[in-house]
Amino acid sequence: MTSSVAPPTSDLTAPPGGLAARLEVAGIGDRIYTTVITGFAASIPLLLVFIAVAVGVAAWPALHQFGFSFLTSSTWDPVHGIFGAAPALYGTLVSSILALIIATPLAIGVAIYLSEFAPAWLRQPVSFLVDLLAAVPSVVYGLWGIFVLIPLLRDYVVPFFKDTLRLGSTPLFSGPSYGPSMLAAGIILAIMVLPYISAVSREVLLAVPRAQREAALALGATRWETIWGAVLPYARSGIIGGVILGLGRALGETMAVTMVIGNRHEISASLLAPGYTMASLIANQFTEATGDLHLSALMAVGFTLFVLTLIVNALARWLVWRVSRGPMP
Asked: What is the pTM of this model?
């Protein structure tokens, strides 16, 4: 006679005690990890807000006293407590735009060559050398500008423009050329922003779907017609974003521009005349600011530069992001 023994009843769905404890500890660890990395992510915008608040509070006395005329007046007189940043704002915009005019065609040309024409064995070394321009310290560019670029402009380039091309009668090349000038600052900035524009443009061109090129070639387009009619329109918003990103880099450059621009607080239409930028104005006068209003005026210049750079970089990031959504309409 056999007897059947009933198996012990237990909840097979409940995890063992040790496993439950391990799952609970793992859950706590996940929550701690999530909280920590969320704090890291939130610290970046908070840091940006803290910087804006600190600079804005320090700049408020000058902005409150002079109002909008602070950005339109050309008088900078620390002795009498009158401050106007128009020449510095003008010099910042002119030197940056001049840098983009010089650097953009060269940077886009390099990007097209590396993404469309360069053989595989040459693409990586050339890309590395172009990107290496961004690693050169700003003061090195400034020294090169003083000892190489300025003599070259004064002795060869400017006489060629004024005498050979007969541009001396135009406002852009009028007046004497002593060396340090807006033109020298623009060329230095062009060299410094070139790797940024080139790198972004290269990545955007490489992101264009291969079907774009194959479709154009299948329709009988030449290599250049394919690039001009199919590739560049698709990548247009990203390339514009790279150019604006280079503009944001040029707006805030300090040391190299300070060494070659001449640092004269006045507005001149001639590119051969010395000028000022907001960054060089702060660098030159911050240690000499003894009065509270003078210091506040410099902080107001910095706050204006901060807001301008923030807007430009945000616009650049948005345009680059548009590439992932297709070509601009």
From this structure: 0.83
